TrEMBL record:
InterPro entries: Methyltransf_11, SAM-dependent_MTases_sf. The keyword Ribosomal protein does not apply. One of its GO terms (biological process) is methylation. Residues 1-10 have a biased composition (Polar residues). This is Methyltransferase domain-containing protein. The keyword Methyltransferase applies. Gene3D superfamilies: Vaccinia Virus protein VP39. Residues 57-97 form the Methyltransferase type domain. It holds the Pfam family Methyltransf_11. GO terms for molecular function: S-adenosylmethionine-dependent methyltransferase activity.
Length: 290
């Protein structure tokens, strides 16, 4: 199993942080929020039969949890992200995973967790021009104005690294009526609209298909996956939700304390008697081919 991480300066993955709390937010994403999407990742990998020998390129890899999951299946993974802090966490995770007993070495005697950071997507290409078997964009789109368009440049750069007919997986939020978290995310839209800073918007039915069409991809199946958001308490929920980047426009339009207060208020219906927070959600994935 070989894992490689590269840096690519496009809007793939959680949007860049506002203010100067990038390290804190990256850790909140890695420690609180990222795991909420594990059922989505598992469903995609099962559907595509990701296994030993699969060459997988992950766009918007964040802090690397989805890459670790693919690597555990034996895949050779390469991660790409635009966020320095998230990428650093992913490198640390993959390097630690490679040092576990029983992990195989990569090509050329390099440890399987070796990371090769670069700012150019072209350096994500596999040696010898070997094409990728799977391309994934597992950071869901469809809840922040412009996030679908932001994925375009990453896809344009990645598709030439895959062979003809390679599956490309796009993921997004399900219908607002199926996502309890949508009610909380509306706070972002309402606050951001005060200064027209851009914030949450409801997911549209054809978000993923439109991205695929712009990239010249052909849809070849889709699915829906239940991904409930569960938190130990309201404070953890607020931190996790802020780490997604959905509330950045709201913070710019008001201030962080105001946003935190209104998120906490919106969470009240989902706080259980033991203080934990539970919000059922549905996410969608689209398989398209090059």
């Amino acid at each position: 199993m070989t894992r490689t991480l590269v840096q690519h300066h496009t809007n793939a993955g959680p949007p860049p942080a506002v203010a100067s709390d990038t390290s804190v937010r990256a850790r909140d994403w890695a420690e609180i929020q990222e795991r909420m999407l594990v059922p989505l990742h598992e469903a995609v990998y099962e559907r595509l039969e990701v296994r030993a020998g699969t060459r997988l390129l992950g766009l918007g890899c964040g802090s690397g949890l989805a890459l670790l999951m693919a690597s555990a299946r034996g895949a050779r993974v390469t991660g790409v992200d635009s966020d320095d802090e998230l990428l650093a966490l992913a490198r640390t995770r993959l390097a630690a995973d490679a040092e576990l007993p029983g992990r195989a070495s990569g090509s050329g005697g390099a440890p399987s967790g070796a990371v090769l950071p670069t700012s150019r997507m072209s350096e994500a290409a596999l040696p010898g021009g070997v094409p990728y078997d799977v391309i994934t964009a597992l950071q869901p789109i469809g809840c922040v104005a412009g996030d679908a368009k932001g994925l375009g440049p990453a896809l344009d750069a990645a598709i030439p690294l895959a062979g003809r007919g390679t599956p490309v997986v796009l993921t997004g939020w399900g219908p607002p009526e199926r996502c309890a978290t949508a009610g909380v995310l509306r706070v972002a839209g309402r606050l951001a609209d005060r200064l027209r800073k851009g914030g949450w918007r409801p997911a549209y039915r054809d978000d993923l298909e439109e991205v695929a069409a712009r990239a010249g991809l052909k849809p070849d199946g889709s699915g829906r996956v239940s991904c409930p958001f569960g938190y130990a308490d309201t404070e953890s929920a607020v931190r996790g939700l802020l780490s997604t980047g959905v509330f950045d426009g709201a913070v710019r339009a008001t201030d962080r304390r105001q946003v935190e207060k209104e998120i906490a208020e919106a969470l009240h219906p989902y706080v259980r008697k033991d203080g934990t927070v539970w919000m059922p959600n549905v996410f969608r994935y689209l398989i398209a081919r090059t």
